[in-house]
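Why run this: before we spend reagent on co-expression, it is cheaper to look at a predicted model of the complex and decide which construct boundaries make sense. The entries below are exactly what would go into the expression plan.
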Amino acid sequence: MTVAAGVLCSILLFLATAVLLLQNVPEGYPVGPHLATLGDYLPGYEVTWRGSLYGALYGFLIGAIGGFVTAVYWNLTHYIALGVMLISSAELAD
Amino acid sequence: MGNYQKMQAANQSIHGVNLKLLNAAIRFNALMLGFTAGTLAAVVIYFATHISLAKWGDYSGNYLGLLAIFFPGYSVSESGAWVGAFWAFVYAGTFSALSYRLYGRVLGTRIADILLSTVPTENPVLKPSVLRLHGVSLGAAIGVMAGLSLFFSTSWLVVRGTADESVHAALFSNYIPGYSVSIPGALLGAVELFLMVFVACLLLASVYNKIVEVRHQ
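The model came back. Tokens follow.
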């Protein structure tokens, strides 16, 4: 799940930046000022082609961490719940 | 009669699947996923609020504060972080649990097809069988939930009478052509978002399944 979520987030952030860059913006107007505020949290990120590559890298990291944490937490809750069920059934059998 | 209804009608094994056990597993997993996603979302909102406070102090909350439209009582403050965590838990938990229930319904007895191996493992509790993801079912489930979420959140902006002021929500039109903060725009946006999420889920499932197959060869 770590790699899969990382790849998906990487593509999403790259595309989110690329879509804005491919739009026609009047000269002098800023491109994607709202998305560019991600740069406050992700150093180096900006709405440029170079920034979109940074975005892809950050997207992979964020997705991978999110996927890993979700998978670990998901497995943990299942182990705990199954453990409780096993103990309960063992007590009932006694 | 749909796949899920067939399962409900006959409480017996179909295609080697114990239907009673499958239904119980879907309910259990939906609850677990709701709890997992809800907790993670709560943690993210809690820390995002505190990071915003630490970084911008009194000037924080320009964008994050907009969450108050959907999170009653939320603000970018110490106490607001707890309120935000509560609402994030409710929204993400509900979204995830319903998505999983829908995934289970769409998948139905085809679950037997996505088992990596039909041979039972030595210890099914500590080393359970691996399930691959069914991209189409996953896309349909999460796509429907995402589409509905966009429709209802946009409708809420229209109902509360702030559609014309919702300049940030209107920015979705950069990614969803034809979307606008209106009921027709929300309907069109929901359909387009469904398609986008569907494709994203197909990609996620194909990458996940490929890695799982390589790891268990």
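The helical segments of chain A are 2-21, 49-93. Chain A touches chain B at residues 1, 3-5, 7-8, 11-12, 16, 19-20, 23, 32, 34, 37, 40-41, 66, 69-70, 73-74, 77-78, 81-82, 86 (CB under 8 Å). Bring this page to Monday's planning discussion.
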